[in-house]
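Summary of Year 1 activities. Much of the first year was spent building the evaluation harness for sequence design. The harness presents a backbone, in tokenized form, and records the residue chosen at every position. We chose the following record to illustrate the format because it has been used consistently in internal testing since the harness was completed.
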């Protein structure tokens, strides 16, 4: 049983193959205490860890100083205002303005399988895959029902959490904070791993010591963002890729979030994760239910690498729904870096003709095909084909591309409106704005108030018309600015604080419609590069554009950070032209291909203009993609070395789940004069089996490759790369 309730100890035990999570109800008080999370144990009762008999923390025996208890007890879901001064998980404000809360256990249910989360993306599993626990509690000051949900995916070593608030009190309540997860660790001296960046520098890894006080990662930008990421791992000081304890938490949500660790006075560490309370205030009327998004948690006692592999397996099996998730994706060529806005039908056909000869399988027409979109200052919202550019209309272009044996894909940015657009002329009040005040421009555009049904219906209707008008196989859904000036004259004051979350729910609703209406469509999410590369989006699209930075060397860091949580099969990665458009760096064409192979693989260049030498590499790269796509999509990922630490080289590996083969990518970022070959130790192979290094015939055991390693010759020049394919004999 993955979930067991023990009546004698009033405790719940949640077991996965390698982990145990324990919760207990403190009998008289009905507090819900967090007992343990870590390596699997067989014991049924660890309630002594709650210290309920240890003065001065005994709640029933120390009434004169109950606050000592509140401020030290490991709460399963902490409330605010009665004495626990650490970060609370929930804050409800009554009509009178009171906000203190106290949570007590009422009852619970244990079921097989997992229910859907209303209106939100979430992991899924049937009765074979998981069990779920609902702890039904009451917040005593308001009478609001709080349901703590847990689903245990035994095989994946994953536990998911989410929270529901139900108002049956006859009175409204304002929800000012409702996190999805609160986790008290009995210990300190942890390190925290988070992901940060900027446009073209997404998800760089940061590791730091957790100290006293609050520290974390957050976005209040209306999206998960380039700058910060809804992921936090807490690990032991000595944890490396392969050893040590690691707890990984990932938020299945694409809007504002907070993920925070806090070391408190008694040497405990509290971690919370959920919707950021800033820009959030929800009116929960009588009869209403509020569903907080899901947090996915995994524990590894085998280092950061195992945490990564747990997330990858979980998301490949239980989050991504698209029919493409296990399929080879069409190798696409996108015209963005090839032409930017300067293209017409003939240009696209020229690219497609050349690309099809080389084995490229799909043409994607990026930004600039609609309205009077001749640059990025206008036309967002006018989703009508510009026939000056696309002469003869979209169908004729798509048919011609199809006749070349290629599929066709198209770009949209449905959530936006340009001040210079027909749509804005007709509906200036459709932009998110504070009435009568100027709206902050970003890329010369405003954000549509997608929280409103009529706007969603209108925009989605236009997208649907376009998609129904021709044989379109793929959509790139972009979002190029963050939210500001939160306001709408259609919202009353009581609900104005709901816009950010309602916006995200609106985006999810549109994507749900799109994927239902066009089940064969391959959807790729994008947000000015990778600003919305998150688990929420993966529920709708099996791949997400990782970054506008296509420089092979900078991509190493971006893809490495992204790989912390997300499988390689989800990372949009393209070979582009040099000098690279974001860095000016010149790298070998083959290196660009090797790095893009650790993703969905495609091209983003004008194939009619590149050198014959570069062009000649394309069929070779395409053959590599076909050879390795399955392995890369489904294999176990290992980080071996990274340029940020090693300075001179980068190396990672994918091993087949049955360990029959492995592909190692080695990039020599900088050559070193007067150096010999470099020893690299391979990971994850079957110890006693023999493997042949396909490129040079070396045969050794898995144990030798792992412990003794292989020698990689010094390559001539900077930015050189090689692939090493090991095949079990
Ligand atoms: C940002 C995306 O990341 C790019 O790939 C491209 O689609 C542009 N937007 C188009 O405006």
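For this record, the design step produced the sequence shown next.
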């Amino acid at each position: 049983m993955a979930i067991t309730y023990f009546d004698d100890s009033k405790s719940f035990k949640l077991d996965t193959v390698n982990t145990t999570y324990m919760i207990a109800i403190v009998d008289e008080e009905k507090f819900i205490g967090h007992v343990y999370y870590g390596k699997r144990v067989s014991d049924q009762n660890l309630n002594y860890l709650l210290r309920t008999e240890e003065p001065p923390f005994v709640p029933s025996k120390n009434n004169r100083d109950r606050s000592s208890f509140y401020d030290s007890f490991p709460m399963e879901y902490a409330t605010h205002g009665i004495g626990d001064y650490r970060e609370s998980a929930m804050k409800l404000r009554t009509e009178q303005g009171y906000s203190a809360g106290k949570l007590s256990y009422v009852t619970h249910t244990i079921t097989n399988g997992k229910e859907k989360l209303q209106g939100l993306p979430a992991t899924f599993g049937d009765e074979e895959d998981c069990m779920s626990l609902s702890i039904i509690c009451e917040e005593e000051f308001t009478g609001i029902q709080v349901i703590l949900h847990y689903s245990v995916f035994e095989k994946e070593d994953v536990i998911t959490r989410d929270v529901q608030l139900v108002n049956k009190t006859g009175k409204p309540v304002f929800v000012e904070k409702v996190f999805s997860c609160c986790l008290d660790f009995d210990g300190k001296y942890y390190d925290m791993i988070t992901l940060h960046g900027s446009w073209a520098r997404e998800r760089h890894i940061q590791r730091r010591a957790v100290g006293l006080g609050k520290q974390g990662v957050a976005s209040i930008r209306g999206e998960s963002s380039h700058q910060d990421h809804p992921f936090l791992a807490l690990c032991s000081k000595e944890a490396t890729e392969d050893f040590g304890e690691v707890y990984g938490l990932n938020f299945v949500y694409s809007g504002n979030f907070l993920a925070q660790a806090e070391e408190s006075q008694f040497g405990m560490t509290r971690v919370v994760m959920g919707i950021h309370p800033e820009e959030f205030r929800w009116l929960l009327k009588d009869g209403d239910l509020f569903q907080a998004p899901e947090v996915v948690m995994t524990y590894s006692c085998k280092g950061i690498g195992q945490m990564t592999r747990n997330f990858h397996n979980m998301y490949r099996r239980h989050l991504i729904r698209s029919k493409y998730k296990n399929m080879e994706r069409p190798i696409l060529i996108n015209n963005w870096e090839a032409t930017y806005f300067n293209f017409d039908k003939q240009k696209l056909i020229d690219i497609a003709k050349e690309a099809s000869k080389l084995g490229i399988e799909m043409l994607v027409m990026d930004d600039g095909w609609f309205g009077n979109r001749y640059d990025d200052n206008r036309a967002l919202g006018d989703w009508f084909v510009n026939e000056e550019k696309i002469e003869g209309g979209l169908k004729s272009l798509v048919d011609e591309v199809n006749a070349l044996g290629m599929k066709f894909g198209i770009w949209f940015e449905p959530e936006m409106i340009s001040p210079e657009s027909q749509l804005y002329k007709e509906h200036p009040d459709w932009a998110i704005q504070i009435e009568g005040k100027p709206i902050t421009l970003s890329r010369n555009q405003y954000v549509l108030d997608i929280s409103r049904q009529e706007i969603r219906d209108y925009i989605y209707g236009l997208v649907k018309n376009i998609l129904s008008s021709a044989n379109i196989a793929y959509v790139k859904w972009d979002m190029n600015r963050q939210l500001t000036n939160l306001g709408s004259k259609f919202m009353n004051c009581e609900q104005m604080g709901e816009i950010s979350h309602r916006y995200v729910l609106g985006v999810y609703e549109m994507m749900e419609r799109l994927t239902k209406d066009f089940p064969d469509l391959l959807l790729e999410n994008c947000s000015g590069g990778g600003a919305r590369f998150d688990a929420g989006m993966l529920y709708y699209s099996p791949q997400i554009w990782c970054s506008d930075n296509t420089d092979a060397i900078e991509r190493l860091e971006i893809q490495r950070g992204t790989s912390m949580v997300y499988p390689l099969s989800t990372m949009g990665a393209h070979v582009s032209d040099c000098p690279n458009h974001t860095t000016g760096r010149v790298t070998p064409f083959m290196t660009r291909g090797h790095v893009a192979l650790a993703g969905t693989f495609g091209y983003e260049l004008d194939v009619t203009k590149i050198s014959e030498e570069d062009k000649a590499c394309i069929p070779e790269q395409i053959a590599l993609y076909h050879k390795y796509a399955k392995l890369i999509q489904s294999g176990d990922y290992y980080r071996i070395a990274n340029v940020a630490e090693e300075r001179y080289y980068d190396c990672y590996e994918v091993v087949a789940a049955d360990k029959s083969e492995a592909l190692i990518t080695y990039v020599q970022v900088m050559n070193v004069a007067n150096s010999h070959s470099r020893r690299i130790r391979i990971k994850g192979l079957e110890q006693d089996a023999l493997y042949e290094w396909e490129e040079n015939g070396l045969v050794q055991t898995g144990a030798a490759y792992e412990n003794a390693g292989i020698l990689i010759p010094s390559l001539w020049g900077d930015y050189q790369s090689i692939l090493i394919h090991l095949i079990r004999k």
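The radius of gyration is 27 Å. Quantitative recovery figures across the full test set are reported in Table 2.
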